[in-house]
Amino acid sequence: MALNVSVQGAETSDRKGRIVLTESVGRGCRHIRVEIESGCCRPDPGQFFLIRERGVFDPLLGRPLAPIASSNNSLDFLFRIVGRGTSHMASLPPGTEVDLRGPCGRGFPGPVKRRLILVSGSLGIAPFLDASARYRDKMEVTVILGVPGNGWEEFAKWCSSRVPGLRITSDDGTLGNRGNAVEEALSVIEPGDEVWGCGPNAMLRELGHLFKIGSGRILVSLESRMACGIGGCLGCSLPTATGMKRVCVDGPVFEWQEIFPNAW
């Protein structure tokens, strides 16, 4: 039975598609494009789709992936191979039929400040590839990518080709400026700027430093293991300042203070 649920103004539904492009972008990272049989609405940056090969039940669960670009009939995704599910997804050739559920969750709302700073840790840049393309003609957008360094050259180059003026930092100093993405954000932030973050929890927690110099709204996108994608299984629940929340429907995007109420 097909599923249809209204989430954040868009209809979450089960869709059919097929992979039409797959390419390596370095360091175990993969870019795929999926053509949607019945067309597709444009998801908000940070919303995601659960994707799995059609007719294959091992792995059983779809992988939650945030689109990096969308059109009327296709979605592009970026992911890193970290387990059996993503390894299987990376091995699928063009022409493979897939099932998708989405768009799921609550993405980033439209920015309300005059400048937007997007802070990402490695694969956390995925939703910001979409967001930067969507907003850079309407306002000043700065995108920061933090990576470990050596071995991430191909990934950084691929991201730079999609984001004009991408600011890159690396832990070992081999790519861009030495340091991390939050330190880079501290060097460019101005009072009242809006900040969005996506990456490891440790990085997201450190974004609280930006409040000390007058940052406006800070929103963060969380990663979590999940099964249904529509809030029924409660497997992605986490404690917040206002009680338990489900990442798949109450998020994955939250106000920073709600997730890290006691950080600073």
Describe the structure.
With 264 residues, the chain is of the alpha/beta class. It has two domains: 4-104, Translation factors (Elongation Factor Tu (Ef-tu), domain 3, Beta Barrel), CATH 2.40.30.10; 115-221, Nucleotide-binding domain of ferredoxin-NADP reductase (FNR) module (Rossmann fold). The chain contains six helices and 17 strands. The protein has helices spanning 84-91, 126-135, 153-162, 181-188, 201-206, 256-259, and strands at 4-7, 10-24, 29-36, 48-53, 63-65, 67-70, 74-80, 97-104, 115-121, 140-147, 167-170, 177-178, 194-198, 218-221, 237-240, 243-246, 253-255. Strands 1, 2, 3, 4, 5, 6, 7 and 8 form an eight-stranded antiparallel sheet that branches. Strands 12-11-10-9-13-14-17 form a seven-stranded mixed sheet, sandwiched between helices. A two-stranded antiparallel ribbon has the order 15-16. Helix 5 (201-206) links the parallel strand 13 and strand 14. 44% of the residues are buried.
Fraction of residues in β-strands: 35-45%
CATH architecture of the largest domain: 3-Layer(aba) Sandwich
Oligomerization? single chain
Name given to the CATH homologous superfamily of the largest domain: Nucleotide-binding domain of ferredoxin-NADP reductase (FNR) module
Give the ordered list of helices and strands.
Answer: EEEEEEEHEEHEHEEHEHEEEEH
General shape: globular
Residue share in helix: 10-25%
Average pLDDT level: 90
Poorly predicted parts: 1-9
Amino-to-carboxy terminus distance: 47 Å
